[in-house]
Amino acid sequence: MTKQWWHDKVAYQIYPKSFYDSNGDGIGDIPGIIRKLDYLQDLGVDILWLSPCYPSPLADQGYDISDYYNIDPRFGTMEDMEQLIAEVKKRGMYLLMDLVVNHCSDEHEWFQKACQEPDGKYGKYFYLRDKEEGKLPTNWRSAFGGPAWDDMPGTNKQYLHMFHKKQPDLNWENPQVREEIYKNINWWLDKGVDGFRLDAIMNIKKALPLHDYAPDREDGLCNIGAMLQEAKGIGEFLNEMRDQTFRVHNAFSVGEVFCAKPDNLPGLIGENGYFDSIFDFNAAMFGFSPNGWYDCSPVTPDEYRDCCFESQKRAGSIGFLANIIENHDWPRGASRYIPEGDRCPESKKMLAALSFLLRGIPFIYQGQELGMENMAFTSMDEVDDVSSHGEYQVALKAGLSPEDALKAVSTFSRDNGRTPMHWSDEANAGFTTGSPWLKVNPNYTAIHAAAQVHDPDSVWSFYKKLIALRKNPVYKETIVYGSLEPVWQNRHNLMAYYRKGDKTILVIGNYQKQGQDVELPAAYQEILLNNYSDVSQDGCTIHLHGYQALALAF
Ligand code: GLC
Ligand code: CA
Fold it and tell me: With a threshold of 0.90, does the pTM exceed it?
């Protein structure tokens, strides 16, 4: 495998709106990110991925872009962005932007012009169909609920939107659209950005001609998954994009891919794959129901382990997965993967160690390094996320009481990860001196950075140790390029694996409150990591404490 600059890095995702507000308007911004770069450097992360900060009506919090060449004034100016790029470079770090090109905003000038002249040049930038009374062009359900088609203002047409109605899908079949997109990517790369995270990228290819699929709910609509399965030829677009943009700049690309079938992996992340990495959503998606959030189930420790190992086995040494515990679209990992009642610094550290030392590129989501948890929303009025509002309606229609619907939405709401970052125990968690755009999680007084960065036993310090271990010159090669072999796979509430390269490392997590014994095959040489201050052992038998995590070198 050809070594690339991103292979041995650690990435950190910033959700700008909720990271740090520098001017008291309640909205996080780019100058705020610049002020916190030393914090990030101290933690040890290398690559920063910024969720979108381009001009946007924020119908989907910036994933609806109205100008690909600018910065939304709420987040700052282009000068701020240039300064951020420079400050990131100065610290030897890298910056990824979010590439949202399956769709743009209905307020983008392309769509505005298409409305003025649907049969003209810009009409061909979108998927438009003549409007027929009482009938939709296809029976597809949009990701946030309701049909994927809406009337195009001022015309007799309807347009396709796989997400919110303010996010019209771009027509990738049109070479002019592709050219515009590549031009924009190169423009940012020329500015000094080091790569992109590719949003909803597998949606860009539609199965043509567009047609209906079997309805899968009482609304008579169908999930677009069936269509995406049928769509062939996305590789032509993705290869072309890679060759005309990322390759030219030696830039890093990581794809948001939900449909990675095992035989797809070489094409997706192999030596000459479309992407340099793709996120592993196997555990995130586990227990999700086609009926909606109200019908989803929790993930047990054994299921979490099996999901991780399944992905690791599929990816093998084909390429690099981007390993996450959470991001801006999912509940907080500490809340989803640690049973209720067991959420404590030890269990959070264990989860961190198990995920972080897998083969792949670790991505930390802001606040994860503090052990931030889900929010207990007390009313839908506290929830901003479009998706949550759609799912709330789905739950009500399925017969849930408003209280139960709120509970279901609270568990999975994307706002769990979007509440402002906890910097300190000052008002609003030190995120803003104004009034925050989204309610701060009241548990900030117990979970915040100011206390953790100086506490050697904090979750934050444990993340710092994990990052340092990944960079330790003695073990780096093994942690980055070594193989992964599960151990004791059928033991209950235990997740353990070897990383084997020029060194051998055994990672063990006792995924329960009770202690548990493991029998080592031989004596270890060194404890690389421990979330307790001791290891209780008799010879090769280790008496693991509840939620103890160890990394041992042999
Ligand atoms: C991706 C983003 C999500 C957004 C969607 C539409 O899944 O991560 O936040 O809503 O794409 O752009
Ligand atoms: Ca601000």
Answer: yes
